[in-house]
Design goal:
34% of the residues lie in helices and 28% in strands. It has four helices and seven strands; from the N terminus they run αβαβαββαβββ. A seven-stranded mixed β-sheet has the order 2-1-3-4-5-6-7. The chain starts with a helix and ends with a strand.
Length: 147
């Protein structure tokens, strides 16, 4: 009987681990226009993957990209800020989590433009795209390639 009780307790604790781990993720502030549907879909993607999001509707989202030091050529429709990093565009939650684990000296991550098939831009096809690590000098390197 005691073994069964301990086994059930251990199982219940294991079920709670994903929730506990998700609660540890930092808040992402997202600056977007009020009318952008794909921004809202990207936010749902982040929330589904354990992030808490504070969305802020602003008149000129691009000014937040500029303030974060992301060059215009890497721009998209929204900018996120998390733990000192900028997240520009439809960056997958898995790459944000990796960035937060690795803690590189960089400005952040960017998915330029709005590739079909990226989080928040789901559609009838999946285009290949790169998640770029934007370095402090404004140069980039491919952080992850998606097909």
């Amino acid at each position: 009987m005691i073994q069964l009780f301990l086994l059930r307790g251990a199982f219940a604790a294991l079920l709670g681990l994903p929730t506990f781990a998700m609660a540890a993720l930092p808040v992402i502030e997202v600056y977007k226009s009020a009318s952008c549907g794909c921004c809202s879909e990207w936010i749902k993607h982040l929330e589904t993957n354990g992030f808490t999001v504070r969305a802020k509707n602003v008149e000129i989202p691009a000014q937040y990209r500029k303030l974060a030091g992301i060059p215009d050529q890497f721009g998209s429709c929204h900018t996120g800020l998390v733990n000192g990093y900028a997240i520009e565009g439809h960056v997958p939650a898995s790459e944000i989590k990796q960035l937060l684990r690795d803690k590189p000296k960089a400005r952040g991550l960017a998915v330029p433009a709005m590739p079909v098939g990226s989080p928040g831009m789901e559609g009838p096809r999946k285009d290949a795209y790169d998640v770029l690590l934007v370095k402090n000098d404004g140069s980039t390197k491919v952080y992850k390639h998606y097909r």
